[in-house]
Amino acid sequence: MFNLESPPGLRSRGVALLALLLPSLASAAALDSRDPVPAGFASPPYYPAPYGGWDGDWSDAYEKAAALVSRMTVAEKVNITAGTDFVKGRCVGNTGSALRVGFPQLCLQDGPLGVRTTDNITAFPAGITTGATWSKDLMYQRGVAMGEEFRGKGVNFYLGPSVGALGRQPRGGRIWEGFGSDPVLQAVAGAATIKGVQEQGVISTLKHYIANEQEIYRMYNPVQQAYSADIDDRTLHEIYLWPFAAGVKAGTGAVMTSYNAVNGSACSQNAYLINGLLKDELGFQGLVMTDWLAQISGVGSALAGLDMSMPGDTFGNNIPLFGYSNWQYELTRSILNGSVPVDRINDMATRVVAAWYKMGQDAADYPPPNFSSNTADRVGPLYPGALISPTGVVNEYVNVQADHKTVAKQVAQEAITLLKNDDSFLPITTSAPLFVFGTDAQADSQGINSCTDKSCNRALLGMGWGSGSANYPYLDDPISSLKRKAGNVRYYNTDSFPKVAAARDGDVAVVFINSDSGENTYTVEGNHGDRDATGLSAWHNGDDLVKNAAAAYENVVVVVHTVGPIIMEPWIDLPSVKAVLVAHLPGQEAGDSLTEVLFGEVSPSGHLPYTIPVSEDDYPASVAIKSTPKLSQIQDTYTEGVYIDYRHFNKAGVKPRFAFGHGLSYANFSFSNATIARSGGQLSSIPPARSSKPVSPVANIDTALPPAADAYYPAGFVKIWRYLYSWLDKLEADAAHAIGAAGSSKYPYPTGYSPTQKTNGPPAGGASGGNPALYDVAYTLSVTVTNTGTTKASGKAVAQAYVQFPEAADNGGFDTPVIQLRDFAKSDTLAPGESATLTLQLTRKDVSVWDTTAQNWIVPNPGGKYGVWIGQASDDLSVVCYTDTLACGNGAQGP
Ligand SMILES: *[C@@H]1O[C@H](CO)[C@@H](O)[C@H](O)[C@H]1NC(C)=O
Ligand SMILES: *[C@@H]1O[C@H](CO)[C@@H](O)[C@H](O)[C@H]1NC(C)=O
Ligand SMILES: *[C@@H]1O[C@H](CO)[C@@H](O)[C@H](O)[C@H]1NC(C)=O
Ligand SMILES: *[C@@H]1O[C@H](CO)[C@@H](O)[C@H](O)[C@H]1NC(C)=O
Ligand SMILES: *[C@@H]1O[C@H](CO)[C@@H](O)[C@H](O)[C@H]1NC(C)=O
Ligand SMILES: *[C@@H]1O[C@H](CO)[C@@H](O)[C@H](O)[C@H]1NC(C)=O
Ligand SMILES: *[C@@H]1O[C@H](CO)[C@@H](O)[C@H](O)[C@H]1NC(C)=O
């Protein structure tokens, strides 16, 4: 989520806000203009919104929810489907309540790496760091720890994980909030996070649905359409939708739509995306919410399947922050006047209540919020947005950290990726004379939380900026840790190479550089969220710092803190650059996690969650940031199709500097003795038919037009200015009801609109995540990994399994990427000579392609020769197994 946009060319947020607001008074017409969506791209109608409550896993929750919603008035149902305010409650989002029937206000809080804007929490490593561990266990353990913290602060909804941005655009501002530029890495890490968080009773909110791959022009505002990501059906299914399917299968209670449009239609009201793909095909049972201020219509978004408007206020067509809403009182009106069918609000409210029951939040011990997003003071206004507000205790400073720093450090450490280590230069000894360069080695001397939402790149980079950041409770920085551990450390806290004494044999220079990005809310050193100003180069002349150090010292170790890929060509081949460690975005545990690796207490075991190219020109041209300002809608056509990151580099035959999945260790690992077995018989080409949809308890909730009196403000009610209510004045309610009761609503429904529930869902559906048969394990593989290192180093190995489909001619004509990641496993620490057997699995979906005609996942040639390549990087695959012969071989050369 966000605050307000920061368009290029405008320096301060205040100016940006004014610039956005003023023209809206003069000309609302600008909003309607847009470039035509490219030929062929269109978002088909998909109506009505399918009811939730037909997936068995959710039946109990839905039975209870439907019973509760049956007792609600229309004003109560409406109240729980939207926020009551913008920056007025304790959390970044606060729903209305239905206290009469025992349903409380719910607190929604950012962000993906920890509880935002509060104290006494853990600032966990970012998503990209978590992805770089390639450890399913750590992905889950981090989720568990975050879930405990959100619950401890009284948060109902964790606004994460983020699996979109997926990483299509390497300059994209928020790629660090997710787990890496591959759908399977995102899917596995996202699902593990959801499981960990929700097991603590907190509802996770999978986001941003979908294709929020760049920051600039992401948002509809009074003068600008959000950009449209124009994506073909197969690419959407095989890349961008894939992690959402996994998250829905993992049971996520909520999904957040993105700011941008797809095929010209805003994601917050795109019926094909929400009703069709998410709720029908993926069988999503939870609730769909907007990103903050992303709602741009009332009736339209309700019909398109949206269930919750956050934070409740309007933005797109009106002035925000003045107490206007597309829903709340307007939604009540549109139900009374018959434009939004009663069964739609029944379903919306039931989805919200069902998610609450599903996670056990009805339990008496689920705490209400005990912190405030608005102030760090103990006492503050209870309604901060109101002109006059009663005050009370708003911050109880509940410490929710427990021992979570242990898992935070473990993630930070296991993510550290050794890219280069000439002559096994690392590890070094603690007695080596160390000369440390770069402001990135030390915590910000102006305060570790001195920039709001980390909207500056000063000193150590532990996380990107924006709503995905959190306050550090403390920051273990590398320089303090180095000084604690090593005897002889000289630190030059500068990014301009200083005058230094002539180097002596054995001197080691450690150079810290970084690259930052974040949310478009803030512009940092000319970067509007995306890295549009700095590109993929290190910030603050980092390249020169490394080059100068390499000229002065024979032994240079480069440490990189970064949001995503950076170009290393200016220095990577210099002979004195002996080693390079990418520490990603480590969060609060940046120090010891790194130095234990430098000094060899543990071996690095991280692997790149993206490709590092030789040049930015090596990417497809279509993945550049679309930053040319327009008063019309920017069209971003995904002409590269499924060929992003390594899928592109492999297809184009372009050798990257470091391949996706690359990561060295102090140990040496060899893979051997692989096996492959079919689980079940030979696959059929088309998956077994889905089962039919059981009737949802939502169908039993009364659909009669509610009495107008149920919507009246209570007698003598005193409104708080700018607070959003679901009630209407008596005259308004009566007028709307009269229209509804006459049954002659003239609402201009979209083409293709129908209020009648479809009885059978799409063939690719059938349960949460889609047809359950897609997740049947088709092949189980095992591989033995042995630490063959000649040194004494122990370490953890990662086995990555990539599928190679048969050639198009043998694959029903489907062109597929050379290889695609499908599973991975990380070993425990292996001593020299020690072995472990790792198990990897391929599901039916893993060997399927999306057939746009059949609208189903098919295996074009079930008996065909699929290669399953196993190794420790996408360009280091020494073992291969084949699905036709069920034979495996060693010493192979990866494709
Ligand atoms: C976008 O348009 C393409 C091309 O017609 C189509 O294949 C795809 O399903 C559409 N996607 C959405 C979400 O509307
Ligand atoms: C809506 O929620 C607010 C905030 O909790 C509450 O004050 C109000 O009474 C609720 N309205 C209804 C109809 O319950
Ligand atoms: C805050 O949370 C703590 C522990 O989770 C709980 O004991 C306390 O009652 C909560 N405070 C409020 C005001 O609910
Ligand atoms: C019903 O109310 C909604 C919300 O104000 C409005 O958009 C819609 O046009 C109304 N429908 C009719 C038939 O008046
Ligand atoms: C953490 O909570 C304690 C009270 O338990 C409080 O004194 C302290 O200020 C809080 N820390 C921060 C950073 O606010
Ligand atoms: C090879 O794998 C098989 C089957 O998993 C196992 O029985 C055997 O012990 C393994 N051999 C070695 C050398 O690891
Ligand atoms: C790992 O193997 C490579 C070549 O296979 C060798 O050059 C290197 O010395 C080995 N490293 C260790 C730590 O054993």
Automatic annotation (TrEMBL):
Residues 1-28 form the signal peptide. It comes from Xylaria flabelliformis. The lineage of its organism: Eukaryota, Fungi, Dikarya, Ascomycota, Pezizomycotina. Pathway: Glycan metabolism; cellulose degradation. Transmembrane segments: none annotated. SUPFAM superfamilies: (Trans)glycosidases, Beta-D-glucan exohydrolase, C-terminal domain. The keyword Iron-sulfur does not apply. Keywords: Carbohydrate metabolism, Cellulose degradation, Glycoprotein, Glycosidase, Hydrolase, Polysaccharide degradation, Signal. InterPro entries: Cellulose_deg_GH3 (IPR050288), Fn3-like (IPR026891), GH (IPR017853), Glyco_hydro_3_AS (IPR019800), Glyco_hydro_3_C (IPR002772), Glyco_hydro_3_C_sf (IPR036881), Glyco_hydro_3_N (IPR001764), Glyco_hydro_3_N_sf (IPR036962). It catalyses: Hydrolysis of terminal, non-reducing beta-D-glucosyl residues with release of beta-D-glucose. Its EC number is 3.2.1.21. Residues 797-874 form the Fibronectin type III-like domain. This is beta-glucosidase. GO terms for molecular function: beta-glucosidase activity. It comes from the Eukaryota. One of its GO terms (biological process) is cellulose catabolic process. Belongs to the glycosyl hydrolase 3 family. Pfam families: Fn3-like, Glyco_hydro_3, Glyco_hydro_3_C.
